[in-house]
Design a protein that fits this description.
With 181 residues, the protein is α/β, with parallel strands linked by helices. It is built from 5 helices and 9 strands. The chain is globular, with a radius of gyration of 15 Å.
């Protein structure tokens, strides 16, 4: 595997960032790599997005961390944010992955997640770890963490679009294996 290659997948909402990341995870695990970290999944009811789960990829523990039904002093758009759910599942998953996984995944570094200082620190620690890392990030946010990630010399940012979403996972796996493209 490429030495501690860090790849950021960005794109517009609905472009396929999570789809691309999960396809890469599937291929890495098929190659015997231990993948750890956190994934966010939309909660969809009657074709309408109602919130998001946070999932620990290793343990498969899952909790709602953003929802229209959560009353919170932290609101992002129409969603109330449950910081404790994000930290108890997502931040702990990132810390465990930084310690023991072969590859760290973070889906996603976005507006809701950066409301947690512990999440921000866990992402920074994962980026500084000497391990390959794959993350998805909001395309247009000007949050300082996202700007820092975009400026890092050791992070390669790739944009997923409706056109390249099926081929991009294969390109990412080749990059992570150190193959020259």
């Amino acid at each position: 595997m490429g030495e501690s290659l860090k790849i950021g997948i960005t794109g517009l909402p609905g472009a396929g960032k999570t789809f691309c990341l999960l396809k890469v995870v599937e291929m890495l695990e098929a190659d015997g790599k231990k993948v750890g970290g956190m994934i966010t999944e939309p909660i969809v009811k009657r074709n309408r997005r109602e919130g998001f789960y946070v999932l620990d990829w290793t343990t498969k523990e899952k909790r709602v961390f953003a929802s229209r039904d959560i009353e919170s002093k932290i609101l992002v758009g129409r969603y109330g944010i449950d910081i404790s759910a994000l930290e108890e599942v997502g931040v702990n998953a990132l810390r465990r992955a930084t310690e023991s996984a072969d590859v760290i995944v973070i889906d996603e570094v976005g507006k809701m997640e950066v409301e947690s200082p512990n999440f921000v620190q866990a992402v920074k620690d994962a980026l500084d770890a000497d391990k390959p890392l794959l993350l998805t990030l909001h395309k247009k946010s000007r949050n300082p963490l996202l700007q820092d990630i975009r400026r890092r010399d050791d992070v390669r940012i790739l944009e997923v679009t409706m056109v390249n979403r099926n081929l991009l996972p294969y390109k990412i796996v080749k990059l992570m294996k150190g193959e020259v493209l």
